[in-house]
Amino acid sequence: MNVFITGATGYIGSRLISSLVVRSHSVKALVREGSENRLRPAIGFIIGDALQMDSYTSEIPPADTFVHLIGVPHPSPAKAAQFRSVDLVSIRVAVKAAQDAGVRHFVYLSVAQPAPIMKAFLEVRHAGEEMLRNSRMAATLIRPWYVLGPGHYWPYPLLPVLWLLQQLPGTRETARRLGFVNIEQMVRTLVWAVENPPDATRIIDVPGIRKIGRTNL
Description:
Elements lengths: L1 E5 L6 H10 L3 E6 L12 E4 L17 E4 L11 H21 L4 E5 L9 H15 L4 E5 L3 E3 L10 H9 L4 H6 L2 E3 H13 L5 E4 L1 H8 L4
Parallel strand pairs: 1-2, 1-4, 2-3, 4-5, 5-6, 6-9, 7-8
């Protein structure tokens, strides 16, 4: 596959690129000036502005898959304004760029929903999903809640509580939808999504991420 990635130097993106390259996919990354040295050698990249409309469209071909991973790090309710100025703007720019470049499959890192907290974050990610549903592209909407991994271990003490909630009929569905996944499961799911493009829009939620994450890619 020819894959174009935004958010390539982040927590998930850097690991995804390594996995894609190992599997012989061609990867091109959009990076901010000064961040290109964080990419592994031999990765194609362009320096551009993910928040500027029509600023990198011409650089996307020959990509057949667009993976959008840009988002405000460590989301919290206090970052509502940043969600709108970064997450929302970047997905709007990305969807138009991918459409104009003739991309067939768009992979979007969304968030588990519905959920009782993080209202602004959920609203922005839902808006991104709607943009993709209204586009002419096939789309994979990946919906984790929290991704455990290096530097992201604080929720571990909550795992026994989540396990208990998943056993109770009244809380089972919500607990499963808002459960944690780990970084290995996320990367495997993203790779699987790239390699198995859908014909329309599909959603991969937490149970799906866990299931795909158990496969040996």
